[in-house]
Every structure is written in structure tokens, then in C-alpha cells.
Amino acid sequence: MIESIMDSIFSFASQTGYLGIFLISFVASIIIFLPPIYYLLLITVLLDKNLDPHIIALVSTSGIVLAKLLIFRASYLGHKFLEKDSIKKSRIMCWLQKFVAKSGWAAAFVVAATPIPDDVVYITLGLSKYSI
Length: 132
Description:
Layout: H1 2-30, H2 38-46, H3 53-78, H4 84-89, H5 91-113, H6 119-127
Helix pairs in contact: 1-2, 1-3, 3-6, 5-6
């Protein structure tokens, strides 16, 4: 059973190549609050002798970064659709903006360096108008 799964993954990787790896990384990262289960696919594809592991890492990282930038940008622009008066009056939003101003970079670094779902932090940074 495991051999058939490995064969199907290798056939997928050989048919689609690096573009398929990019698309899988992008689509899996753009889905909000999905744990990074596609890492298992990437580890399996790394075992394929026909693909360069350095290019796999570069292509996969490009797809993930593009997806996270789109999530951040959508939440950044989504700030305009929220009621401005309620944002100004909200203590939570004021606290959040102060926290992000002080340690937003640290939170973004920690969630980016760990395999935990990081969408909550990126959405919060975008809504707080944190600089990209």
C-alpha cells in the first residue's frame, strides 16, 4: 500500500515537475487555517532522484510566500471594509495595534519558523496595517 502511494506521488512529480510542486505549495498555503500537511508530499518528492532538492525547496518556498503575501494583502485591504468608527473605538484593536507595533515582527518570525498554522498572525498584522 505504501509503495503504491509512493509510486503515485513520484508519477505526479515526474508529470508536473516543479510547476506542480509550486501549485501544491501555493494552494495548500492559501487555504486558511489548514495545517501544513503538504510537507509530507514535499518530503516524499525529495526522495525522487529526477528532481533537484534545492530547486524543490526554492519552488515550494516561492509558492508558500506568494500565498502568505496574498493573505496578508487581502486582510490589509479588508481593513477598509470594516467600520472605521468601530475600529477607532475598539480597545481590542487599539491594543492589537500597539502590540503589533512593538513585537509584530517577532510573532511573524516565530510562526514562519515553526510548522504551526500562521494565518491568524498574518491576518492580524494585515488588519493592524502593519508594514509589509
